[in-house]
């Protein structure tokens, strides 16, 4: 994927993020994630039925990287099993941390494959994933 296409995907998901806005529904898992070093502060909600992610929503204030990562993540996770989501999460984190990963699993999340060139942005790309991990860990 070339740099121009990556920037376009990130910008489109920042300007018009998927599922931005929370709902009043107690059946959703909830988590907050925020940065210690910038304005990023996002609330997430995830609905899981029969082991399948049915919906993920988010709201809050965040930079282009965190907002777009949340949007792309949501599109990547809805309709997947909990185990599939965990596998994508593991591979995404490995990519951000410059470790071996399966790029085929990540789809559009591959737009962040060079984020390590800007180390201060790695946290921005990881924040939405941390919220999903918190919600999945609460299932145990």
Give your account of this protein's structure.
The chain has 140 residues and is α+β, with helices and mostly antiparallel strands. The protein contains five helices and three strands. The chain has helices at 3-15, 64-77, 82-96, 103-106, 119-137, and strands at 29-34, 41-49, 52-61. The chain has a three-stranded antiparallel β-sheet, with helices on one face. β1 (29-34) and β2 (41-49) form a beta hairpin. The protein is globular and about 40 Å long. The model has no long low-confidence stretch (mean pLDDT 94).
Please give the number of β-strands: 3
pLDDT < 50 runs, ≥5 residues: none
SSE pattern: HEEEHHHH
CA radius of gyration is 14 Å
Mean residue pLDDT = 94
Broad CATH class: Alpha Beta
Shape: globular
Most strands sheet: 3 strands, antiparallel
Q: Write the CATH fold name.
A: Sufe protein. Chain: A
Instruction: Work out the strand percent.
Output: 15-25%
Class derived from helix and strand content: alpha+beta
Distance between the termini: 37 Å
What is the count of structural domains? 1
Order of strands, main sheet, comes to: 1-2-3
CATH 2nd-level architecture: Alpha-Beta Complex
Portion of residues within helices: 40-55%
Q: Helix tally?
A: 5
């Amino acid at each position: 994927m070339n740099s121009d296409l990556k920037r376009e995907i990130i910008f489109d998901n920042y300007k018009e993020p998927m599922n931005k806005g929370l709902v009043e529904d107690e059946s959703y898992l909830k988590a907050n994630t925020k940065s210690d070093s910038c304005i990023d502060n996002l609330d997430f909600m995830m609905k899981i039925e029969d082991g399948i992610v049915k919906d993920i929503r988010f709201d809050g204030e965040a930079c282009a990287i965190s907002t777009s990562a949340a949007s792309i993540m949501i599109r990547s996770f809805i309709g997947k099993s909990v185990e599939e989501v965990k596998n994508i999460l593991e591979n995404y984190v490995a990519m951000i941390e410059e470790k071996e990963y399966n790029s085929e699993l990540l789809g559009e999340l591959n737009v962040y494959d060079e984020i390590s060139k800007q180390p201060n942005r790695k946290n921005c790309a990881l924040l939405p994933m941390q919220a999903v991990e918190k919600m999945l860990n609460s299932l145990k």
